[in-house]
What does this fold into?
Amino acid sequence: MFFALKILQNIFTEFKVYVFVDTPSSKQKQIIFLHLFQSNQVNTAMPVVELNPSYYQARRAAKAAEHYLNYHYGSPFKLFSIRDIKSATLEELPEGRGKYNMTFAVDDAISNKTAGICTAEIVFNRTEEEKTPEVHCTCDDLLKVNTSEAENSFFHQVMQSTKLVEGEYIPDSFGFIAPEMKPWWQLGILASSFVMLKESNESTLYNMAQILSVKQQKSEENSLLVDYDVLLHDFISQEMIQWHIQASWSPTTGVKVTKCTLQPKKHSTTPATVDSR
It folds into this structure.
């Protein structure tokens, strides 16, 4: 008579059935081993690796999330900076993609106040045709950083002025930024965040190093229209890369990059242009 049945499944998608039989003649237990293979089922789960939050892979993925937050939620008076990565994992996905899941603390870099805790999913596409990383981010207190009064005051002041703003080399060689140009510097970071996110991969770590020139343009819309020439610094390669960026901004619509052009190196004659509209 059968008195026990146990099924064990191993990682090679096969299982074994052990049947214990008590024979009436000898009263001794005999084991009948049946070895059966599982069919029509494949284990497709990919391994998830926990990362050291201070490890370079976690920091580079978090930087892409920072660019995403600044472009979508920042303003000339609100810039987000990731202060502390709490946890990070990496999952290898099919078709050469890597998915990072992260939790991190965010500060407002202008006021130095805590902006909240965020969770993010960042997917890098490791293909010959580089694509913008896919970022999904949720933050608990991010929108509580209220700078609407300063934003509206700045916006109306600039829109009512008859003089178009121009500037160059921000900051200067001594690291100085004139107080009246700080909102334009910070707006330049927001616009550059669009490019830095687009260009990010697992081997980059971008920051905006300098505004070479900023020129406000006449706009038919109820928004500021600005042309920037900026230098972006990739910390990994130590390259300084120049981009021309056209962007609009208003307190209600946020920043919108309408065109960005990679400026040619000295040996190149044809710039690459990306129109984001």
Notes: The longest strand covers residues 80-93. Confidence is low (pLDDT under 50) at residues 1-43, 267-277. Residues 65 and 262 are 22 Å apart (CA to CA). The helical segments are 56-73, 148-160, 182-199.
